């Protein structure tokens, strides 16, 4: 997630993982600008991380609903399929250091949702369209060729897409794993405080004001931060993600090229989220096997702890990752890998 701001006054979000700009001093430095101290240099990386990203995916595009979608794949066609879906304002490479741990036993695909990463932008975004996009990617990358339907794994906003697809199209997936996914938006008092902050925010992207262009990679990386606000548990991972969140763009003064964020800054203005709002009965009926993996310190889960109704099926299996915030793959990547591998090995096909 980067520092570009969300639309003013829009309180319809299903969960709040949007990138938001704040003024210096409002957050601790390790939260406000976790990469600034490295001054554009790459933080040191452990060997496991170097080995994982050395397993390069095949990179390509799949067309869906007239949009070119960025897709990364690992593993052989003919093995059981896994589809990884990233969070809001993110991209397929958020899974590039996770997916290789599954490539020996699975055919793995990671997609960039429309309007994010290197995928094309749309005039309108909808949950139904995201579900169709996921199905198109699963078909095109051979995720059905392993003798069963693919398993979807989605983080945050991507978990919302997986949840929606599981509810609307259960025939398309073997199982669904949601990674730190929350619903319903913040309480009214938080919304009021956020609206007040938003009125003070500069550099808000609108239809006639695009995302900010930074003169150097260092300057852009210095403004990268995570949303909801949290420290970057492993700065090397945050740096890896941030660099792949940027693209070249003309500087605003016409003096050359700089760097800007890849995501469509107006996606939240153009997104129809009505299909994701839980009903008075507590949400849609879910028949797809589903599990939720969440961070022990996740702010997304605070709403549920405060008593907010959950659309999750009653009694749904949940797995807590200790010492992790919302972005578990940054805080505790190997613990997330271990949890996912254990689930895929023993659930949902374990004997009764």
UniProtKB/TrEMBL annotation:
GO cellular component: membrane
Signal peptide residues on this chain, from the entry's feature table: none
Chain segments annotated as coiled-coil in the UniProt record: none
UniProt feature, compositional bias: Basic and acidic residues: 1-21
Region (Disordered): 1-30
Keywords for the protein's UniProt record, in alphabetical order: Hydrolase
Entry GO MF terms: hydrolase activity
Domain of life: Bacteria
AB hydrolase-1 domain sequence ranges: 82-339
InterPro entries: AB_hydrolase_1, AB_hydrolase_fold, AB_hydrolase_sf
SUPFAM superfamilies named among the record's database cross-references: alpha/beta-Hydrolases
Name of the featured protein: Alpha/beta hydrolase
Species of the source: Phenylobacterium hankyongense
Taxonomic lineage from the root: Bacteria, Pseudomonadati, Pseudomonadota, Alphaproteobacteria, Caulobacterales
């Amino acid at each position: 997630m980067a520092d570009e701001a969300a639309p003013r006054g829009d309180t319809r979000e299903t969960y709040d993982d949007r990138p938001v700009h704040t003024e210096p001093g409002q957050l601790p430095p390790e939260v406000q600008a976790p990469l600034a101290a490295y001054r554009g240099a790459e933080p040191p990386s452990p060997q496991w991380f170097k080995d994982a990203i050395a397993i390069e995916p095949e990179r390509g595009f799949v067309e869906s609903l007239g949009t070119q979608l960025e897709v990364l794949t690992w593993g052989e066609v003919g093995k059981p399929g896994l589809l990884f879906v990233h969070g809001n304002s993110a991209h397929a490479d958020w899974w590039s250091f996770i997916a290789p741990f599954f490539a020996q036993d699975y055919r793995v695909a990671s997609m960039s949702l429309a309007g994010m990463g290197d995928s094309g932008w749309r005039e309108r975004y909808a949950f139904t369209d995201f579900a169709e996009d996921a199905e198109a990617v699963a078909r095109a990358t051979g995720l059905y060729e392993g003798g069963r339907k693919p398993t979807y794994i989605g983080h945050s906003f991507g978990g919302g897409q997986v949840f929606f697809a599981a509810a609307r199209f259960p025939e398309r997936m073997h199982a669904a794993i949601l990674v730190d996914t929350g619903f319903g938006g913040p309480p009214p008092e938080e919304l009021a405080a956020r609206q007040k902050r938003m009125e003070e925010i500069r550099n808000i992207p609108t239809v006639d004001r695009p995302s900010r262009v930074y003169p150097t990679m260092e300057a852009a990386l210095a403004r990268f931060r995570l949303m909801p606000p949290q420290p970057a548990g492993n700065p090397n991972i945050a740096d890896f993600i941030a660099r792949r969140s940027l693209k070249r763009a003309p500087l605003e003064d016409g003096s050359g090229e700089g760097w800007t964020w890849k995501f469509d800054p107006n996606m939240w203005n153009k997104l129809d989220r009505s299909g994701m709002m839980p009903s008075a009965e507590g949400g849609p009926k879910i028949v797809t096997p589903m599990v939720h993996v969440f961070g022990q310190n996740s702010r997304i889960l605070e709403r549920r702890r405060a008593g907010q109704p959950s659309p999750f099926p009653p009694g749904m299996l949940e797995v807590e990752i200790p010492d992790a915030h919302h972005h578990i793959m940054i805080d505790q990547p190997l613990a997330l890998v271990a949890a996912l591998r254990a689930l895929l090995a023993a659930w949902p096909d374990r004997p009764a």
